[in-house]
Amino acid sequence: MDWEPNVDAVGVFLREIWPTYWPRWPNCALPHCGPESSGRVRRLAGSSVEVTGRVPSVVDHLREAAVVVVPLRIGGGTRLKIYEAMAMGRAVVSTTVGAEGLEVHHGRDILLCDAADNFAESVATTMQDAAARDRLESAAAELASNYGWPLIGARFGKILETVKKESVELVRAMRNK
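The structure assignment produced for this chain is given below.
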């Protein structure tokens, strides 16, 4: 968690989004997982914010999450945290930068919001509306299933077969010149 885009995202979420959302559900907690060496994120911990630091596996935390938030404002790096949450069948609310480069669909398998008030409202609505959350979670899990290792391996195998076939054809064509 010493990577600046993540530190910025947590800070913005806790300053601009969480205060709008948390009074509606004061018993709700925001766990934050990840290695953190700078101390800046740890200082943000409070009665409703738990900074766990490094955990052996994020799976248990994802299982407990009603909504996963990805409030990134600065691009760069991978967005695997979104696909991980989706693969666990969790609703995700993210900024557009947070989901940049992913084949996600706002309103179907993820909620994308850039303004703090819209982000807070999307989290609140997702928490309140169990049926809508269930639809979002099902669609998210279905989308993430397209990126499992068996499917990726099969696709990669087909690519390799195509490259091999084209290479053989190219060598034959060069020999016949």
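Interim note for the steering committee: The chain has a mean pLDDT of 85. The longest strand covers residues 49-53.
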